Amino acid sequence: MAKVLMLYSTTDGHTIEICRRLASVISAAGDSTELVDLIDGPSLDHFEFDKIVIGASIRYGRHRKTVYEFIRTNRETLERYPNALFSVNVVARKPGKDTPGTNPYLRKFLARIEWVPQNLGVFAGKIDYPSLGPFDRTMIRFILWIGKGPTDTTGTYEFTDWDRVEEFGRLIARL
Q1: For labeling, which of 54, 101, 106, 126 is most exposed (least CB within 10 Å)?
Q2: 152: helix, strand or coil
Q3: What distances in angstroms separate CA 82 from CA 3, 15, 35, 42, 112, one per listed residue?
Q4: CA-CA distance, 135 to 37, in Å (whole number)?
Q5: For residue range 61-86, what is the model confidence (pLDDT) as tens digits?
Q6: 85 with 151: CB under 8 angstroms?
Q7: Mean pLDDT of all residues belonging to the chain
């Protein structure tokens, strides 16, 4: 039984939902998973693991600085273990922007880091307009209007393909 350390950065909580689904799939395959929020500034020295996964959401076209800093600080350790990285963004709801090779946010992210993850995933996220503050609600609505997405601010729109998430979980279990 392998131990999977899954680190995540979430903006509105959907990335942790994806991590929990991945952990469920990984657990069903016989491995254990520990979930850790990157906002807490974890040190890899404090964990026992055989595999490592990083999941990160984007907001306004960028992943959080904590993700970049963690990777920069821990690159050598990341490279020594079977690993994976996935990005969560609403642009991935569109065909042709829903794979690691075609998603513009993941491609931009990978160009900015020195680590080359062994396995990549990209998942469409979720927009929960009612839970957003006025500024974010307005900005995201405008961005989605430009991208021909849903703009009714009374709604919640989940675009995640959970079958793809589970497939990624099975891939992690096989590492």
Answers
A1: 101
A2: coil
A3: 11, 21, 17, 19, 21
A4: 25
A5: 889 999 999 999 999 999 999 999 99
A6: no
A7: 95
Interval 2-29: pLDDT, tens: 999 999 999 999 999 999 999 999 999 9
* pTM strictly above 0.85: yes
Instruction: Quote the CA–CA distance of 43 and 73 in Å, as a whole number.
Output: 10
Domain ranges of the chain: 3-125+160-174, 126-159
List pLDDT tens digits, range 88-107.
999 999 999 999 999 999 99
For residue 127, give both structure tokens.
């927009």
The CATH T-level fold of domain 3-125+160-174 is Rossmann fold (3.40.50)
- Nearest CA to 135 out of 58, 60, 66, 63 is that of 60
Q: Hunting for tokens 């903006």 — which residue is that?
A: 11
Cα–Cα distance list, 56 to 65, 96, 119, 153, 163 (Å)? 11, 20, 14, 24, 19
Count of alpha carbons within 13 angstroms of residue 123, beta-carbon side? 28
Is the separation of the CB atoms in 22 and 172 below 8 Å? yes
